[in-house]
Amino acid sequence: MKIAIFGGTGPQGQGLACRFAKAGVAVALGSRDGVRAAAIAAELNQKLAVYPGAAQIEGHENVAAVHAADEIVMLAVPYSGHDAALEQLKPHLGGKILVDLVVPLAPDNPKAVAMPPEGSATEAAQALLGQTTAVVGALHNVSAHTLNHLEQAINCDILVCGNELAASEKVMELISRLDVATYYCGPASAARCLEAITPILIRLNISKKVPFSHAGIRIWAPGSVA
Amino acid sequence: MKIAIFGGTGPQGQGLACRFAKAGVAVALGSRDGVRAAAIAAELNQKLAVYPGAAQIEGHENVAAVHAADEIVMLAVPYSGHDAALEQLKPHLGGKILVDLVVPLAPDNPKAVAMPPEGSATEAAQALLGQTTAVVGALHNVSAHTLNHLEQAINCDILVCGNELAASEKVMELISRLDVATYYCGPASAARCLEAITPILIRLNISKKVPFSHAGIRIWAPGSVA
C-alpha cells in the first residue's frame, strides 16, 4: 500500500509521512519541488531507520506523488493554497480518494476559522472535484508536534467525515494503523465542526491556562477507558 | 448564590438543576407552568436529600425564575422555542448573564445541525438580546443522561464561549463546581463549532460502532491525565 501526501514537506506532512511509514504504509511525499521532496524523504527514512518494520518514504513532485499512490491521496497544503492544489490534482486523481486535512484558519488569526462559502474546506474540495470523487475530511486536529514525536503515542482521537461512507471507512482503516481511535462524524458538512475544532485547540495551546501545549480532542463516555 | 434555568423542567434542565443543587448552588427552576415547576422541584429536592450539602431547588414560572436568580440565567428550551424564550426573557434580564445551552438540531435529523443565519444559537441570542447583555454558550455537549446520574462523575469537559471574557469566566467558575474541567474557546462565533459537536456525539451514540452510549468530548494532550 502506498499513499500520497500532496504538499507533504511541511511539518504536518512530514509528521504524517513518518507515522504512516512507521506503521508499514509506504508514502509518496509530494512537493512543488521534487528534488527537495526527495531530500526530505531521505532525511525522514534515516529518522525511521530505528523502526525495523518501517516502509519507505519517496520524494516526488506533487503530481508525480499523486500518480504513485494506489488509492489514497492526502492534501496537506496551507489553506491559502487549498483550491489551487485541488485544481492541479483534479485531472490526476483517477478515482482515488482525496483526504482533506486543511483547516481554513483566518489569515491573521489562528484562533479563528474563516470558512469558505461552501461551509468548510472539505465541502469546498467536494464541490471543486465533483460528486463522483470521494472526499474525506480527517486529521485536522492532531498537531504537527504530536505527529513528529514518533516516540510518543498519538493521544487524541481522529474525527472523520465524508459523503461516501465506504471511502470514509477506508480512510478510517488506514488511520487506525497509527494506533488511534477513529470516529465517523457524518457527511462532509460535519467538517464545519471538525475543522473549527483546530483553532480552539490552538487557542488553548497559546493560553497559559491549560497544563499542556499540544492539545487534541477525545471522545469520552461513562465506562470508556483512558 | 442562586441561578435560574429557563425551560428547566426537561431532562437536561432537571439534570443541571440537580447537579448545581448538589454542589451547593440554589436553583430557580423555570417552566411555562409554575405549578408544574414547583412539583418537579419538590421531587428533585427529595432525590437530593441523600446529599447533605445540597442547596434547594425552587419551582417557578419562567419569568419569576429569572427574577429569582442573582446573576446567571440558563436557557434550556428546545431550539424551536429558542428565540421566543429570549424575547420573553429580554425585558427581565436586567444585567444578568444569559447562558445559552441550546443546540439547533435539524428538525428531522438529530445527527445534524441547522444553524440560524447568525451562525449559531449563541450568536442568535447575542443578536436578539443586544451587545450590552453578556451571552455565554456552554454545556451543549453533556448528555441529560449523564447529568441525571448523580452517582456518576460528569466525565466530559465543558467548552465555553462568549464575547465577554469576564462573563465567560464567571460561568466557567460556576460550572467548575460540578467537578469538571472548563475551557474558554473564544468569542460567541466558536459556538458554531461547540453546538455542532452535539449531533456528532448523538450520531456516535446511535451508531453501534462505539462501546458507549452517552459520549462527551474531552481535551487531551501529552502529559494530561485521565
Which structural traits does this protein have?
alpha/beta, homodimer, 8 helices, 226 residues, two-stranded antiparallel sheet, 11 strands, globular
Question: Briefly, what is this?
Answer:
Chain A has 226 residues and is of the alpha/beta class.
Structure in words:
By secondary structure, chain A is α/β, with parallel strands linked by helices. Helices cover 37% and strands 21% of the residues of chain A. The first copy, chain A, has helices spanning 11-22, 34-47, 62-68, 82-89, 121-129, 144-148, 165-176, 191-206; strands spanning 2-6, 26-31, 57-61, 72-75, 97-100, 105-106, 109-113, 135-137, 158-162, 182-184, 216-220. In chain A, the strands form 2 sheets. Chain A has an 8-stranded mixed β-sheet, with helices on both faces. In chain A, helix 2 (34-47) links the parallel strand 2 (26-31) and strand 3 (57-61). In chain A, helix 4 packs parallel to helix 5. The A-B interface holds A 111-112, 146, 149, 152, 155-157, 159, 183-186, 189-190, 192-193, 196-197, 199-201, 203-204, 207, 209-224, 226 and B 111-112, 146, 149, 152, 155-157, 159, 183-186, 189-190, 192-193, 196-197, 199-201, 203-204, 207, 209-224, 226. Strand 11 of chain A pairs antiparallel with strand 11 of chain B, so a sheet runs across the interface.
